[in-house]
Amino acid sequence: MRVAATRLGSLVQRRGFASTPRRLDNYAFIGLGQMGYQMARNLQSKLKPTDKVSIFDVNTSAMEGLSAEMKAASSGAAVELAASAHDASKGADTVVTCLPEPQHVRGVYESILTDSLPKKDRIFIDCSTIDPTTSRQVAKSVSEAGQGTFVDAPMSGGVVGATAGTLTFMLGADSSVVPRVEPTLFLMGRKVLHCGDQGAGLSAKLANNYLLALNNIATAEAMNLGIRCGLDPKTLANVLNVSTGKCWPSEINNPVKGVIETAPASRDYRGGFGISLMRKDLRLALVAAESAQAKTELGTLAFNMYDKAAQREDCKDRDFSVVYRYLGGKEE
Ligand code: NAD
């Protein structure tokens, strides 16, 4: 039974587990990094012992570590270590990929879609954050090879959400395949937002992260402005958060130490959403904007800022709210 389905124009949001569509038995999971490792673990643990998950990553220690963890749990689907992405996909009905950048997605699918891959009506679910143009090209190559359907399902929720199985997926797929895709996504996350045809999930994800990138810088600048004018940081944040400036960076991820105790700023910007990931997402948003001929004047300025901050010793590898430090914001 579906729980709490809400319709917002063409956007369909569903929570809970979809049970009506048939469960596909053989899965492949390719890309076992920070996100993929946890997602594959959740997927395998929630499948039946009669199901099988074949895993692959170029990093063999990630593969072996995950396989050992899955086998130690002694429940869920059978696990198989594959020798390549192609090998993992051979017997799979559903293939999930979670890779870093567009070139990795292109390369992995080229290696899978060779003539030696047995013909099958597979579902390929790509959870990587890449640009919609590359994603559409890969979808076309899957369909031209007669190997089934490729959908984009980029996610939000970070490593915490991947570990807890509470991710939100932004799905780009023809409506007719949504019932075949959702059951797999609900094993790794809590919400599936169907955004439109293939590629639409990525367009939504990149538009959201574009806005987040700008809101984050604007919040850092506004906080720095008010503090340097003599305001107490918490007083200023309290004003913003009941006024029209309120946004996620001001309210939840405030960039000034001590304003929100649980925010990365209060632990030297450790953890959270890495500045290099934000730089990458913003670059992809600018690529998408260029191909859609959407004007993004602030985006280029913001990208240069993340680019420079990500290289500075006291900012790199930190949460993206560290732009406050990059701006010379007062920290004590
Ligand atoms: P990651 O770099 O930790 O993991 C990527 C994995 O892909 C690595 O284990 C790598 O060895 C593997 N890989 C690379 N090339 C491969 C190939 N040819 N064949 C097989 N495996 C290959 O990245 P991540 O943090 O897990 O993110 C994955 C995707 O999810 C990215 O597109 C990222 O932007 C997106 N994302 C990440 C987060 C986050 O918080 N980390 C949140 C939302 C979305």
TrEMBL record:
Alphabetical GO biological process terms: L-valine catabolic process
SUPFAM superfamilies named in the record: 6-phosphogluconate dehydrogenase C-terminal domain-like, NAD(P)-binding Rossmann-fold domains
The keyword NAD is assigned to this record: yes
Stretches assigned to the 3-hydroxyisobutyrate dehydrogenase-like NAD-binding domain: 199-327
Residues annotated as transmembrane: none
Record's keyword terms, sorted: Branched-chain amino acid catabolism, NAD, Oxidoreductase
Record's protein name: 3-hydroxyisobutyrate dehydrogenase
Organism for this UniProt entry: Hypocrea virens (strain Gv29-8 / FGSC 10586)
